[in-house]
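Input record, target 12 of the design panel.
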């Protein structure tokens, strides 16, 4: 069954749904969830995307998350929790940090930004996650050229918003 993706307008209002391949081919504006997950040693869970991904295969993901589906509806929190559980087998409280418009690859998307702390075990979803690296903020930034562009933008913005709250 083809995954249906929510499409949005300039104001982040849902305007319809399309099959995921159509969204990718047309670079249609959509929503995605971004979870920055950190452990108590101040290291971040950084995923390496599988080579079969339809976007940035083999690259690093500075945030855990993904495209918001029609099944998620207008509930970005559900999308973030679902993605974290699917990709890493992790359920932990998440701090909502708001929306961010991300302009990338000639289009845009609205990212729902989240932060979580976690020190337990994780289980990678083999279809989506090839590896997990535990990196410091500096190590992530040094590997920006290896990282999916939208996820490094979200990574920087989540850290900025966390610092503003402190």
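The sequence produced for target 12 reads:
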């Amino acid at each position: 069954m083809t995954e249906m993706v929510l499409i949005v307008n300039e104001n982040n209002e849902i305007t319809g749904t399309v099959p995921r391949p159509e969204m990718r081919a047309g670079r249609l504006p959509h929503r995605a969830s971004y979870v920055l997950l950190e452990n108590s040693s101040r290291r971040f869970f950084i995923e390496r995307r599988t080579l079969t991904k339809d976007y940035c295969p083999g690259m690093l993901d500075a945030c855990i998350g993904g495209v918001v589906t029609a099944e998620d509806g207008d509930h970005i929190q559900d999308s973030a929790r679902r993605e974290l559980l699917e990709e890493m087998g992790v359920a932990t409280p998440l701090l909502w940090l708001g929306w961010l418009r991300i302009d990338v690859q000639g289009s845009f998307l609205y990212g729902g930004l989240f932060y979580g702390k976690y020190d337990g075990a994780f289980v990678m979803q083999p279809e989506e996650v090839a590896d997990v690296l535990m990196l410091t903020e500096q190590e992530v930034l040094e590997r920006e050229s290896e990282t999916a562009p939208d996820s490094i933008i979200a990574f920087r913005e989540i850290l900025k918003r966390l610092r503003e709250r402190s």
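The chain has a mean pLDDT of 95.
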